[in-house]
Structure formats: C-alpha cells, structure tokens
TrEMBL record:
Family annotation (Pfam families): BPD_transp_1
Name this polypeptide is given: ABC transporter permease
Keyword annotations: Cell membrane, Membrane, Transmembrane, Transmembrane helix, Transport
Taxonomic source organism: Paracoccus fontiphilus
Classification via PROSITE patterns: ABC_TM1 (PS50928)
Lineage, opening ranks: Bacteria, Pseudomonadati, Pseudomonadota, Alphaproteobacteria, Rhodobacterales
UniProt keyword Transmembrane present: yes
Topology term for the membrane: Multi-pass membrane protein
Family stated for the protein in its record: Belongs to the binding-protein-dependent transport system permease family. CysTW subfamily.
Transmembrane annotation, as ranges: 21-41, 74-95, 107-132, 152-180, 201-223, 259-281
Domain of life per record: Bacteria
Amino acid sequence: MAKGGLDAQARQGYTLIAPPFLYALLILAAPLLTILTYSFLTDGYLEVVRDFTWANYVQVWTDPIVRTVMLRSLMVSALVTLVTVLLAFPVAYYVSFLVRPEKKSLWLFLITIPFWTSYLIRVFLWKVILGYNGVINSSLTGLGIIDEPLTFILYNVNSIVITLAHAYAPFAILPIFVALEKIDRSLLEAGRDLGESRAMTFWRVTLPLAMPGVLAAVLIVFIPTIGDYVTPELIGGGKIPMIANLIQVQMLALDNRPLGSALAVTAMAIVALVSIVFLLINRRFLKVRS
C-alpha cells in the first residue's frame, strides 16, 4: 500500500515537472542541437550543403585569426571577472557585516538600481562618459589637468573591461553577500578570542567560508561576458572583436552558418570546461564548509 502510494506520488511529481521540462527542452535544446548540426555541414554559396564534414572545426582550431579572437575573449572575460569580483567583495562585505540589519534591504535595493535601465542604454552611457568629448575628458580639460582629451580610455580593452565590470557588478555582489550572510558570527568571535587579528580572522575564516559565493560570482560574470557582443562593438568601436562578434560576421555578414556554428559550439565547449573546473573547486569548499 505504501509502495503504491509512493508510485502515485512519483507519477504526480513527473506530471508536475513534465510541462516545464518539455518547455525547457524545446526552448534550449532545440536551438543548441540545430547549431551543433549546422557545425558539421558544408558551406555553399548562399546555402548550406548537407554534407558531413570536420572542416569547420579544423578551421576553428587552426586559423590564427580565430585563435587570436578566442584568446582575447578569454583574456577580457577573465580580466572583467577579476575586476568585478575584487570590487564586489568589499561592497558585499560592508553590507553584510557593517550595515545594520534593518537597512540591508535598502542597500540591496540600491545595488539593483542598474537593472532599472536597459543594458544597451548603460553601454551607450559609458560611451558618452569615456568619449573624446565625454564627461571625463571634459572635466579634466575644464580643471586644467590635461591640455587635450585622452584617447586611451575609449575603443580599447580598458573601456570594455570598465563597462562590463559595471554592468555585471550586481551579479557578483549578490551571491557573495548571500555567502557572507550564512557565516556564523560566533566563528569570527572565536577566532578573535584565540588571539587572531581581524586580518588573520578574515583570511582564515571569513574568506574560505565565503568562497562558494565568490566562485558563484566568478561563473555568473565569466560565462555571459565571454559571449558579449554589444560592448566590444560599441565601446570597442569594432576594433577589438571578441568571439561573439566573429560569430555574427560569419552568420550574417558572410552567410557562413556552418563555420559560425562551429565557432559557437567551440566557445560553448570552452566555457563548459571552465565552468566544470570552478564547480569542482566550489564543491571542495562546500565540503570544507560542511
């Protein structure tokens, strides 16, 4: 009887999860399978020839231009992730440890204010701020600090990193804040009672316990930034293409959908490998924490 009841509950559970599962399968899996299939086909003139080939992947892994763009994408994403997490951790620490409990919700509300505007609008605003006649150059020129506008703050890697770090800062602050909130404050008091300084207590207790949140922030920032298309196009002026820009050129400008699909699949595979590494590291910290 009990077994029959469990089977009935299992069937009810499957019935409940079936619609969202099928929806996710249709929305997510179908496009991915389509791109994967295209990556093994042959490009013809304004059409896709349905002949199986490895040539697209051979070109992806041997073409020096593709290799350069891919390495640049990884470098920029890693740099954005590093800058974002380093800037996000002090903010999350301040809100978690120094802000009074009744005001934490207000701070979290303020942190999410950038989400009120479109990502595209924020990118354009940074272009205005960093431009040749933008806010920074106009202010420095008006104060007499510089004689002519700075040219190295726009249309380069620095401007891309600044824009992306600002755009994804809330995504890094929130998971770190959640991890810090879960830390038992008595552990920190015990460390100080044993004669540890605040710095050593932070290094030996707070930081290791907060690492799951830090690693989550790393993944949340790294994964979307490596495939960002808008920021390199607008802030980089098209002079510093990343892998998403190269995929767009192959898919639309050159109408080479098989090669564009191979680029997309390769980028997804690299991101998946990096994500697996960080997830394994995160599991290690979770075991230590438990």
